[in-house]
Amino acid sequence: MNLRYDGRVVVITGAGNGLGKSHALEFAKRGARVVVNDLGGAGDGSGEDGSVASQVVREIEALGGQAIGNTDSVEDGGRIIQQAMDTYGRVDVLINNAGILRDTAFHKLDEASWDIIYRVHLLGAFRTTRAAWDVMRSAGYGRILMTTSAAGIYGNFGQANYSSAKLGIVGLANTLAVEGATKGIFTNTIAPTAASRLTASVMPEAMLKALNPEYVTPVAAMLCHESSDQNGGLFEVGGGWVAKLRWEQARGAMFSPGTMTAEALADRWSEVTSFDKARHPSSIQDTLQTLGEEIGMQFGLSVQ
Ligand code: NAI
């Protein structure tokens, strides 16, 4: 194992089950001191059980590793980071992984199911990361891994609340990648697919077997290592397959002033939507540059 975490403190939210537990065991095996956070509730976010986090701590200790348990909700993320600081005095890696589901078709979605999903996924990731951010900025070092979902990236029936919160996490990660770059803090996001209690009822048995959470964890172990220079990446990962995603922007159509009518637009719609000669902007500067060039060509200006 070359990618060691000796001396590092790794905070993993929702580490009592599924993906988070797999991450926790792996980071501990690689020498990290792990903060195993888990509220221990049901898959829909109801209830709590303090033994869920401590069970994983015992498993890590049985393997000769070091860990502490934390049973706060990620909605109180500041307390998780405070416990890490009180116990270990540092936070090098934060993996925002805790999650629940309240699936229902949008026409039946009520505010309570919207709110709890937002609070656990997006507000929880914000609060935990906001507290860790101060620590990492002071240290001049940090690695943050967010957990989004294909449901957020592509949309999925019955998951309006979840997909909104999950894509919000990608937006948060995009800006943290920009703000953290000069401070030694790199933020990446995974969209995993894995067998867990959240997917047990929606996937066939054979598929679940192929989707062991352990097949996702190496991506976390690599991206969160000090040797990784990946920042702002979004990766789909599951079943041993991993691939980076990016935005694709059609070449588009430019209209001279006053000529963009609905009819003119309809005539040139194929230019707006064709991905022949597509661009792949990876920053706001890239897309503003494109806009500037299009406007510059229109008015005969040169854009720097
Ligand atoms: P899981 O249910 O096995 O594990 C999630 C853990 O988060 C549970 O142990 C739960 O107690 C904990 N948790 C829930 N609310 C919490 C809170 N407020 N504070 C602290 N801990 C809390 O689920 P799984 O599948 O391992 O999911 C992990 C993450 O991956 C979630 O964010 C999920 O949305 C995401 N994900 C999973 C996919 C999959 O195929 N399993 C697909 C896409 C995303």
Give the mean pLDDT.
Answer: 96
Radius of gyration, in Å, reads 22 Å
Distance between the ends: 47 Å
Domains (count): 2
Low-confidence parts lasting 5 or more residues at pLDDT below 50?
none
Bound molecules: 1,4-dihydronicotinamide adenine dinucleotide
CATH fold annotation of the largest domain: Rossmann fold
Helical fraction: 40-55%
| Continuous helix count | 11
Structural class: alpha/beta
Q: Strands of the biggest beta sheet: in what spatial order?
A: 3-2-1-4-5-6-7-8
The coarse overall form would be: globular
Order of helices and strands: EHEHEHEHEHHEHHEEHHH
Proportion in β-strands: 5-15%
**CATH-level-4 superfamily name of the largest domain:** NAD(P)-binding Rossmann-like Domain
CATH 2nd-level architecture of the largest domain = 3-Layer(aba) Sandwich
- Biggest beta-sheet profile: 8 strands, mixed
Top CATH class of the largest domain: Alpha Beta
Query: How many individual β-strands?
Result: 8
Task: For the structure shown, list the relevant keywords.
Helix Hairpins; alpha/beta; 2 domains; eight-stranded mixed β-sheet; 43% helix; binds 1,4-dihydronicotinamide adenine dinucleotide; 304 residues; Rossmann fold; globular
What is the topology?
Elements: E1 9-12, H1 18-29, E2 33-37, H2 51-62, E3 66-70, H3 77-88, E4 93-96, H4 111-139, E5 142-147, H5 150-154, H6 160-180, E6 185-192, H7 205-210, H8 217-223, E7 234-238, E8 241-245, H9 262-267, H10 269-273, H11 284-299
Parallel strand pairs: 1-2, 1-4, 2-3, 4-5, 5-6, 6-7
Antiparallel strand pairs: 7-8
